[in-house]
Automatic annotation (TrEMBL):
Localization annotation: Cell membrane
PANTHER family cross-referenced by the UniProt entry: OLFACTORY RECEPTOR
UniProt similarity note: Belongs to the G-protein coupled receptor 1 family.
Protein's organism: Pteropus alecto
Gene3D superfamilies named in the record: Rhodopsin 7-helix transmembrane proteins (1.20.1070.10)
InterPro entries xref list: GPCR_Rhodpsn (IPR000276), GPCR_Rhodpsn_7TM (IPR017452), Olfact_rcpt (IPR000725)
Protein name per the record: Olfactory receptor
Any matching Pfam family: 7tm_4
C-alpha cells in the first residue's frame, strides 16, 4: 500500500515537472533553440511513458483487479517500446546538437536549423513507432500453453517471451541485435560526441565558457547514464540470466524515477530554464 502510494506520488511529481518544463520552453522565446526543442520532446516522452505504466498499475492495485486484456497488454507494450526507442534517439540527437554547438559553432546555425531539428524529431518518433510495432506484433503471436500470469507491473517484450511455451531463443537473439542497433550504437555515438566535446573544451581559453559547456554536458550525460544503464542490462542479456525481481527494480528506476529526475537535472543546473521559470512566476503573480 505504502509503496504503491509512493509510486503514484512520484508519478504525479514527474508528470507535473515534465509538463512545467514543456510549458517553459514553448512560452519563452529565448528557449526556442534546437537544444531546448529536443529537451521538450524528452519531457513529452517521459510524461507519456509514465502515463502508459503507472495509472493502469495503480488502478489494478487499488481496485484489487490485477488484470489486463491481451489487446491492452499489446497496446501498453507498443507505447512503452515506442517511447523508449524514441527517447534513445532523442538523447543521441541532443548529444549531436551539443557536438555541433561546441565543435562547429560557425556552422551550427546553418546545420541545426529549426526545419532540420523538426525533421530529426519526426524521424525519432517514426523510427520508434515502426520498430515498436514490429516488436509488439511478433511476440504477441507466440503460443501460451500454461499460466498467463505476468511477473511484472506492466507488459513488455521480455515478459511476453517468458510466457511462451515455444522456443524463443532465436527471437531473443533478434532482440539482442535490435538492442545493439538501438542502444549500443547510439550510446557509442554519444560517447564519441562527448569525447570530441571534452577535447575541444580543454583547448578553450575562457574559463567561464568552459564551465558553462561542462554544466550543460554533465546534465545530459547524467540523463544518458540513467537511461542506457538499466535498459542495456534488461534488453541485451537473455531473459533467463536475470530474475523478474531484478527486471522490476530496474524498470521502476528507469521508467518511474528517471522521468522525475530528468526535469530536475536540467532545470536546477540551467540558468536559462530558471530564468524562464522566474519570468513565468512573475507573470502569474502580476496577473
Amino acid at each position: 500500500m505504502i509503496l504503491n502510494s509512493m509510486i503514484v506520488f512520484i508519478y504525479i511529481l514527474a508528470f507535473l515537472g515534465n509538463m512545467l518544463l514543456i510549458v517553459l520552453i514553448w512560452e519563452d522565446s529565448r528557449l526556442h533553440t534546437p537544444m531546448y526543442i529536443l529537451l521538450s520532446q524528452l519531457s513529452l516522452i517521459d510524461l507519456t511513458l509514465t502515463s502508459t505504466i503507472v495509472p493502469k498499475m495503480a488502478s489494478n492495485f487499488f481496485t484489487g483487479k490485477r488484470t489486463i486484456s491481451w489487446i491492452g497488454c499489446g497496446i501498453q507494450s507498443f507505447f512503452f517500446l515506442m517511447l523508449g526507442m524514441s527517447e534513445c534517439l532523442i538523447l543521441t540527437l541532443m548529444a549531436y546538437d551539443r557536438y555541433m554547438a561546441v565543435c562547429s559553432p560557425l556552422r551550427y546555425p546553418t546545420i541545426m536549423s529549426p526545419r532540420f531539428c523538426l525533421q530529426m524529431v519526426a524521424g525519432c518518433w517514426t523510427g520508434g513507432s515502426i520498430s515498436s510495432l514490429i516488436h509488439t506484433i511478433y511476440p504477441m503471436h507466440f503460443p501460451i500453453c500454461g499460466s498467463r500470469e505476468i511477473h511484472h507491473f506492466f507488459c513488455e517484450v521480455p515478459v511476453l517471451i517468458k510466457l511462451s511455451c515455444k522456443d524463443t531463443s532465436v527471437y531473443q537473439l533478434v532482440v539482442v541485435v535490435t538492442s545493439i542497433v538501438l542502444l549500443v550504437l547510439p550510446f557509442s555515438l554519444i560517447t564519441a560526441s562527448y569525447t570530441l566535446i571534452f577535447l575541444t573544451v580543454l583547448r578553450m581559453n575562457s574559463v567561464k565558457g568552459r564551465k558553462k559547456i561542462l554544466a550543460t554536458c554533465s546534465s545530459h550525460l547524467t540523463v544518458v547514464s540513467l537511461f542506457f544503464g538499466p535498459n542495456i542490462f534488461i534488453y541485451m542479456t537473455f531473459t533467463s540470466s536475470h530474475s523478474p525481481e531484478q527486471d522490476q527494480a530496474l524498470s521502476v528506476f528507469s521508467n518511474i524515477l528517471t522521468p522525475l529526475l530528468n526535469p530536475l537535472i536540467y532545470s536546477l543546473r540551467n540558468k536559462e530554464v530558471v530564468a524562464a521559470l522566474r519570468k513565468l512566476m512573475g507573470r502569474s503573480v502580476a496577473s
